[in-house]
Amino acid sequence: MKKILTSIFLINIALAVSAQQIDFSLLKAMKPRNIGPGSMSGRVTAIAPVEANPDIIYIGAASGGVWKTENGGTTWKSIFDANPTVNIGAIAVQQNNPNVIWVGTGEGNPRNSINLGQGIYKSLDGGRTWKAMGLEKTITIHRILIDPQHPNTIYVGAMGNPFAEHSERGVYKSTDGGETWTKILYTNASSGVGDMVMDPTNPNKIFVNMWQMRRTAYDFKSGGPGSGFYMTLDGGKNWTKLDKNN
C-alpha cells in the first residue's frame, strides 16, 4: 500500500511540473505518513466526577466506551467493554452513593458520523458490572439527571435517531431506580433533548431545551415547531414553554 501511495504521489508531481525535468533520486527517502482523520473514539461526550473524591472520574467516549480513573487522571481503565455497545452519550454518578453509576448509550451530538446506542445501563459497584435498564428505542441519550434527595428518581434526556422520525424521544422519568420509565416531555417525532439541567437547590425544577432536527445522507435541518425551552416545577408533571416574556 505504501508503494502504491508513493507512486501516486510521484506521478502527481510529474504531472504538475509537466515537461520540467525532476531528479527523482531526491525523493527516494520520502515515506507516506498518516495525517488523519483522528480516531472516532477520541471524542469525549461525558464527564462525571465523584464529588466526595474528585480523584475518581468517569468519562464516556463517542465510540470508545466508559473509562475510569482513581488517581485524578494519571491512569485510566476501560470498564464498559463487555456490553453490547461502547457508544456513550451520558454518564451520571449518584453522589450520595458513588458506587451507583448510570450510563446512557448513543452519542447525543447529531453530527454526520454519530454513533447510535442501545439504551441505558446501571452499575452498583463502581463500574465493575453493569445491568441494562431499558430505553433501547431512544437510540441516543444525551443527558441523565439524578434527584439528589430521592436517588431512585432518574431523568433521561433522549435526542433520538437523527436520521429518522420516531416517537421514542424526549424526557423520561423513573421513580423506581430504572425498573420502569414514563415519558414526561415530548414535542414531536423529530425533536429530542438538546440539553437538560436541574436546579441544584430544587430537584423538582428542571429546564429542558427541546431541539427539532433531522439529518439525511446529504443535508441537515435544524429548528422547527418542536424546538423550545421548557421548565417544570413539579418533577415533570407539568411543563411551561418559556418565551421572550419569561
Largest sheet: 5 strands, antiparallel
The value of Rg in angstroms is 23 Å
Structural class: mainly beta
Give the low-confidence spans: none
Global outline: globular
Helix content class:
under 10%
Task: Give me the strand/helix succession.
Answer: HEEEEEEEEEEEEEEEEE
Number of strands: 17
**How many helices?**
1
Mean pLDDT rating: 90
Short précis:
By secondary structure, the chain is mainly beta. 6% of the residues lie in helices and 36% in strands. It starts with a helix and ends with a strand.
Structure description:
With 246 residues, the chain is mainly beta. It contains one helix and 17 strands. The protein has one helix spanning 2-16, and strands at residues 44-49, 57-61, 65-69, 77-78, 88-93, 101-105, 120-123, 131-132, 141-146, 154-158, 170-174, 182-185, 191-199, 202-215, 220-222, 228-232, 240-242.
Indicate the topology.
Layout: H1 2-16, E1 44-49, E2 57-61, E3 65-69, E4 77-78, E5 88-93, E6 101-105, E7 120-123, E8 131-132, E9 141-146, E10 154-158, E11 170-174, E12 182-185, E13 191-199, E14 202-215, E15 220-222, E16 228-232, E17 240-242
Antiparallel strand pairs: 1-2, 2-3, 3-4, 5-6, 6-7, 7-8, 9-10, 10-11, 11-12, 13-14, 14-15, 14-16, 16-17
Question: What key phrases describe this protein's structure?
Answer:
36% strand, five-stranded antiparallel sheet, 246 residues
